[in-house]
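quick one
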Amino acid sequence: MDKNEFYLGQDRVLILKVPNLESWLVPLLNEFFTHRRNCRSSHKVNGRWENSYLDIDSVPSARIPMRFARTAGIEMLGIRPVLLFEPLSRSRSELPPFWFNIAKPGELTGLHDHAHLSILSAVVYLQADPYSGNLYFQKSDDIEVVPEPGKIVIFPPHVKHGVRINQSSNERISLAFNLFPFPLPNQDL
Ligand SMILES: [Fe+2]
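structure w/ fe (ii) ion:
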């Protein structure tokens, strides 16, 4: 059973729904499917590309759940995260601070965190059903988040998490992103 928030030690995790699904979720999936062949991938783990990146101009509807997470950070967590749609640095190799996770049936995502320079992280489900792989956390054996389109999980970037095996017959597609502190971190530090 999902709660709308819980603590992992000192770390607060929010589970919310991004409202007005019809205004952003189907458009975002359509944008993703239109451009997915152009995705840049960051790294391959166990034979599967972990993260798939597109520029914001290709998937403009991604702004809506990202803005929602920023507002939740302000209103519920008392922080003022900075929302970036472009890479943090101007280097050509730098990737945008948001990405798609695509898990085919039978695939999973191992434990990881999003700690690099960010202040808040989130994942929102775009195409998922209750069998497409629960989100779990290293610090808790009994909390699992069941995926559902429009559900968003907002968590501190250092919290280690993974995704169970996709036991559905469809791809699970989610959008993950990081928000940043102000002033923006200097990558050269
Ligand atoms: Fe993640």
